Inverse folding.
């Protein structure tokens, strides 16, 4: 099978020009769902799918799928679907998303041009609003397709300007009536940029993910007493920030301890708001949001338990009121063994040393994996950076990872490996 | 000498009605410099000064003074001036400021009605913009009168709406052309609410301040590396917030240690800003502003030294970049011995057990003390609260503290004590 590096480069580069931004530091773009740039990117994809001989469908939340039923395939058999997303964060890069969509298209083109005859239909998919950049909820389109959320609920979401997803999709002509049902797919594969440095450090072109991290979020509030910074002696203070400082230390220590056994376990206090936040007033309240991740539910639960205990210790030691609200739990997602094996075998077959590791970021694949067999492949991110115009993946790496994707899809679709 | 409790109550209550706010928790008011409420309060004062037989002057920044030259006094002798301010913070109380202005007026009325014949002129003063509530700089009017700042510079200051102090004062008819020169005063006394609980705890009606705290401000910046909260393992992080948490602990510990020897010494991290402050991003930078106080320059310097050393320790331990900018030093101000003695003797003479302590808050008296002899008296604050509608001082305490003020003024003006 021949993956055409230049064709892939052209698709990604031309798509990257939609919503392109002025920048001194790389190829940046802003493609928010329902924007002109989003319409242009979607129309480019539809044209490319049709040019590759695929039938295009658009579902009610704007998810796009191109379908090819090979001559020897059973049209009623579950498809092997491949894809990712086309939207970006504000001032994002050109690979995060498009590599997976156009890599999928290139993989299908390569299979089609080969002497293989898949036994199952193949689909190329682009999910809506993966980044949550406009409507605030990440992996939105795939959550609807996977049945976790109704199309009505998603369409009613409003952006900062009060416009609904329904209106934004109608405005760009991508509020469809077709059906995308991952539950009916036989298998799913996504190729994405790593957004980390493990492939770069190993000088490898492709990674095969064995699990997508679970994310737990907690809101912690520490209440002391706001008071005059001059008139309140040190021994009469109940300073919420001093207590919060001790707590932040303890969160970091707890995660470092758990990480010695579970390297994927991390905990971060990223959002930290002090009130009243005035120089000459002792802080009365600190509100924090914690991001806790791990690839096993046990490691996450153990971390939350330790953090809860640490908060109790801090509250007692500093005489503050403290509360912890575990308000979000997206559990870890294991990839399906046969998808992992197909990707690993395919990489081997083209001479690539595929690395196995977990994904610390969330992906549409986590939604799809709840309803069908799923796999996730990574291409290297230079310097590990993403969500910035500095995001970059070498074109040779793009092509190599796409070769692994094509081989994996061919295996799952029932052709013999070459 | 007879201080008229009801007359004092009426002056404070009627002035408290200007800018009065709706509240369920007490008598609140918002009197920002140059507002209608400020004009009403100033006009009420001018009328009351004139009714008490005083000549009224207004200087270019709106400071108001009423002057009485007793029959037996040398009109060219340095005056004994008493006063405070009429402006408030937004949603402040009715005693912070007006007690000192109308207490001064009541003291002069009491002296005038007595059989004493002072040898020096007496003045009742109200300084502009003590709170800094509209133009951002506290004790503004007294800083101009004391020569620390030019009238031009003060008049050019703009509020949040872009209106200058000059315009605001012109609009209310209080941009005067007279001269107020504290340097020419023989002595100055201010009566103010304590804004603390020391008098209440001692069940005392009057406090005599021996020193006004010095305030040093530092800006501390800790720089780590903002990074993906999921993809960055615990042992590869440079988390600015974890380092800042350790630093905040150390600031509190350093101040508590110094406070065992210098009880007035305090240090507060009140302003604490995390960047980017997003839940799933490791904090890259924390910017803090510190408020450090003490009644000796040595205690403040020692505290800053310890904080600087702690910051160095934290930077090394957490591999972060850290900087400390000591951007403001308003040194401590000692009150003048003869003013302290006059106030203490006067309190004794009327059977009040005057407490001696420092002021942890800044006052106009700190500016005046740089150019002439000065003293500061406190009346109790119920519960220690101020800058809120819940601010309250019992009317009996107002009258008692005013009796001490009147006695002190009479002593400084050269009459014999009764």
């Amino acid at each position: 099978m021949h993956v055409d590096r230049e064709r892939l480069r052209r698709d990604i580069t031309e798509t990257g020009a939609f919503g392109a931004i002025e920048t001194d530091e790389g190829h940046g773009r802003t493609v928010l769902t329902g924007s002109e740039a989003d319409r242009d990117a979607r129309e480019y994809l539809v044209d490319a799918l049709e040019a590759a001989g695929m039938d295009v469908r658009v579902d009610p939340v704007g998810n796009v799928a191109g379908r090819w039923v090979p001559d020897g395939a059973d049209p009623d058999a579950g498809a092997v679907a491949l894809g990712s997303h086309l939207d970006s964060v504000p001032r994002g890069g050109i690979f995060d998303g498009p590599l997976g969509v156009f890599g999928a298209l290139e993989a299908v083109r390569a299979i089609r041009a080969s002497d293989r005859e898949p036994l199952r239909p193949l689909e190329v998919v682009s999910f809506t609003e993966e980044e949550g950049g406009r409507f605030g909820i990440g992996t939105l389109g795939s959550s609807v397709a996977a049945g976790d959320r109704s199309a009505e609920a998603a369409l009613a979401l409003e952006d900062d300007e009060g416009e609904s997803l329904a209106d934004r999709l109608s405005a760009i002509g991508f509020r469809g009536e077709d059906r995308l049902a991952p539950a009916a797919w036989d298998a799913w594969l996504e190729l994405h940029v790593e957004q980390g440095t493990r492939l770069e450090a190993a000088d490898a072109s492709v990674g095969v993910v064995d699990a997508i991290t679970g994310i737990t979020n907690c809101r912690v509030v520490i209440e002391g007493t706001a008071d005059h910074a001059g008139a309140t002696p040190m021994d009469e203070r109940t300073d919420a920030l001093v207590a919060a400082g001790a707590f932040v230390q303890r969160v970091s220590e707890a995660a470092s301890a758990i990480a010695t056994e579970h390297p994927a376990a991390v905990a971060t206090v990223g959002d930290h708001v002090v009130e009243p936040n005035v120089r000459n007033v002792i802080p009365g309240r600190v509100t924090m949001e914690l991001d806790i991740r791990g690839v096993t539910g046990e490691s996450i639960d153990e971390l939350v338990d330790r953090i809860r205990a640490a908060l109790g210790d801090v509250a007692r030691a500093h005489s503050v009121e403290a509360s912890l609200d575990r308000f979000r739990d997206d559990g870890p997602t294991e990839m399906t063994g046969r998808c992992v094996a197909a990707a690993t075998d395919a990489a081997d077959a083209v001479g690539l040393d595929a690395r196995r590791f977990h994904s610390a970021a969330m992906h549409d694949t986590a939604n799809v994996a709840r309803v069908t067999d799923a796999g996730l492949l990574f291409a290297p991110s230079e310097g590990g950076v993403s969500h910035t115009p500095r995001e970059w993946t070498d074109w040779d790496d793009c092509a190599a990872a796409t070769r692994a994707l094509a081989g994996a899809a061919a295996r799952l679709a029932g052709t013999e490996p070459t």
Remarks:
- The mean pLDDT of chain B is 95.
- The two ends of chain B are 8 Å apart (CA to CA).
- The first helix of chain B runs from residue 5 to 16.
